[in-house]
Amino acid sequence: MMERGLISVDRWSEGSQVYFLTHLHADHTNGLSATWNKGPIFCSRLTAKLFPFKFPAFNLSLLRILEIGSWHSVSLVSPTTRLQTVVHVMAIDANHCPGAVMYLFRGESGCILCTGDFRWESTSERALIGRAMLVKALNGDKVDILYLDNTYCNPSYSFPSREVAAQQVVEIIASHPECDIIIGIDSLGKEDLLLYISRMLKIKIWVWPERLQTMDLLGFHGSFTTKTSLTRVRAVPRYSFSIDTLEKLNTFRPTIGIMPSGLPWMVKINRQIGGKMTTVERFHKYIYTVPYSDHSCFNEIKEFIKVAKPSQIKGIVSSSSCYVDPHYYFGDLCRGKQQSRRLIEGQEGERVESKCLSGCNIENKRKRGRSIKFCILDVRISRFSALRRKRRGAKILDIDLVSLIEPS
């Protein structure tokens, strides 16, 4: 057993001896600030490098760097017995955004795997390295509890590889030589996409000043600029990307917007065009949506679970437009041979509410209230905005590692 009050992952309230940060996206740092003083924070080397930019004046002596792929031992003290206990942890590349890692914890009674946000692609070299690292770290053992990025835990989400999606973005830009292009991105992530566009089209890409500083910290020099006169392609903050913005820009110059994401409001039924299936959609006369996602799609989640073979699965995303408890689809893949609720209920597409497993000590912040239904093929502006706000506000389960193995 691992007692409450020892380790927290992406959870920033008081009460733990050590804290672990998977990556620097805002939904995983809620509660963390420059004045943090509750305890040491373990993170990847790249996250530590970006930390001062995200949290100026932060006391960097509180950071503990974990090298990816190496085991580290953390000595803790039992709050009840006052005896020392040791937990071993390995950081594994999550293939999500710069610095993002999963954490594999081992204790006397078993192991826990926290994915944070992750992408489990089957074709990229980076993902294959991460897969080999996880398999080697498990060394034939299995995961007792898997805290899973269940953002797209629904069969309706099927994404191509990011390499394929990036080429789709390039083709859209190349097919509109007379247009300015704006691409909606976050303050961290999608760097590989922008670099690919720059390399394939031999152009610089405009980014806002703070984003340029991040690019410089990441070592991406020469491909980005803050001078609009040097390029027709601009990467803008996702919150500023909207139909209203595109319509206003088009009163001055022809402008096309591209949103690279697997967000729910971009789910489209693939259509056959010219004998080929396409996942690129003309969402609006000025907007294309491309399924370039930094989260795993449904089939990738399934393949990941087959590797981890956990006894229990707990989803970390507890509020989204399509939330499904991972046990609904993947219960039959768990080592305990737990039958999936989908098979029990016999309804393939039914949405189910999250139910905390016995012994689970994780606060579920799922918002209660009337659910919102969205039309997939006819999304109006109000629905577009509502879903985008809802996705930005998705709650993350506070992970307090209480027990490595639940009582039988």
What secondary-structure arrangement, pairings included, does this model have?
Blueprint: E1 7-9, E2 18-20, E3 41-44, H1 45-54, E4 63-66, E5 71-77, E6 84-93, E7 101-107, E8 110-114, H2 125-138, E9 145-148, H3 162-174, E10 180-185, H4 191-201, E11 205-206, H5 209-217, E12 224-225, E13 233-237, H6 243-249, E14 255-260, E15 271-273, E16 276-278, E17 281-284, E18 287-290, H7 298-308, E19 312-315, H8 326-330, H9 341-345, H10 381-392, E20 399-401
Parallel strand pairs: 1-2, 2-3, 3-4, 8-9, 9-19, 10-13, 10-14, 11-12, 14-18
Antiparallel strand pairs: 1-20, 5-6, 6-7, 7-8, 15-16, 17-18
Helix pairs in contact: 3-4
- What does the overall shape look like? globular
Oligomer: single chain
- Percentage of helical residues? 10-25%
The overall average pLDDT, rounded, is 80
The strand order across the widest sheet is: 5-6-7-8-9-19
Largest sheet: 6 strands, mixed
Determine the structural class based on helices, strands and strand pairing.
alpha/beta
Rg from alpha-carbon coordinates: 22 Å
Query: How many runs of DSSP E, i.e. beta strands?
Result: 20
- The N- and C-terminal alpha carbons lie at a distance of 12 Å
Low-confidence sequence ranges: 265-278, 343-398, 402-408
String of helices and strands: EEEHEEEEEHEHEHEHEEHEEEEEHEHHHE
The number of helical segments is 10
State which percent range the strand residues make up: 15-25%
